[in-house]
Amino acid sequence: MADIQGSYDELFTAVPSMLAGFADDGDVGGAVAVFVDGKPVVDVWTGFADAGRTRAWERDTIVNVFSVTKTMTALCALVLIDRGKLDPDAPVARYWPEFAAAGKRHVLVRHLLSHTAGLPDWEGPVEELYDWPAATARLAGQAPRWEPGTAAGYHSLTQGFLVGEVLRRITGRTVGEFFAAEVAGPLGADFHLGLGPGHDHRVALTVPPPGRDEDYTASAANRDAAAAPTTATALRVRDGNGLAWRRAQIPAASGYGNARSVALVQSLLACGGAVGGVRVLSPEGCERARDLQFEGEDRVLGMPARYGLGYGLFGSALGWGGWGGALVWVDPDERLALAYVTNQMREPATDQRGIELVMAAQDGLKGLRAT
Fold first, then answer.
1. Catalytic residue numbers?
2. What stretches of the chain show up as alpha helix (H) in DSSP?
3. Opening angle at CA 302, ends 294 and 269, nearest 5
4. From CA 114, how far away is CA 329, in angstroms rounded?
5. What is the pLDDT of residues 79-95, one digit of tens each?
6. N or C, where is the chain less crowded by C-beta within 10 Å?
7. Residue 252 per-residue DSSP state
8. pLDDT tens digits along 158-200
């Protein structure tokens, strides 16, 4: 069995055992953390930080979590809503006047957060993702693909720019700057949007699925191309592994952290807005994330979806996954937050690692609550 590093409560032994199983099945490296009541009951890692398996995954190894980043951006928006600086029912153009172009005058802030704004596709060159003014100007001039608020379609790359520009107009700070100052800094969380060169030595580069190379592109597991035609630009693994991607702020997909930092931050929603004596949100602000915005077929993903304000909803739990396997799962009713990060991609249609870890953690939680 693969060597597991870190610590865990004996009641949650199934979680590290499962992580070891992933490595035994061929995964390069990964980490999982489970927090209950804002405190870690599992914080473990295994494997290697490079495809050549020459560099061990260490306690402070960080990795691109792709769309799990969306939950960090959503949290920033929830903080501003909580403070009365952002109104989810306001037109986006109230904060970003140029956005009213091309029939978007009536798009609301809540539409951006719930993938119902009708702007799901990034249609520009990949290089433009690294240029914030150019990226946001492109989206401001784009017409929606459907009547905003009437349907949902996963805004894979665009959501971060859309929400992020609203936040920037309000605060004068980028999402990365706001998140660092108002969330990660106070909590002591090792999560970054816009990664400086001083952290490069800690990064585990993404490894494509077995049999694939770095030209492997992002795609939805159940997407029906005929039903959901798109002119979206394909994102490749080599793009996500590039320095330009790492330095840029792409608030839907370019966040770097470890399982510990993701679980710590999202424990805010599990614990009524405060962790370790640090309050970031009110209890009401946390509940706002579970305010159902859409339920039905996602036009882009080609599968049923339930969206709250910035989070996917799964029964009473909320969270989201990232390209390649990363996952954050928050259960406020149980005051639990779980995060899984990995550098080993698997094909989306067959990747069940995250949900298997959630099930293992729930078994441990039953034992914990019984004691």
1. 67
2. 14-24, 69-82, 109-113, 132-140, 158-171, 175-179, 185-187, 237-240, 243-247, 259-270, 283-288, 353-370
3. 40
4. 17
5. 999 999 999 999 999 99
6. C
7. T
8. 999 999 999 999 999 999 999 999 999 999 999 999 999 999 9
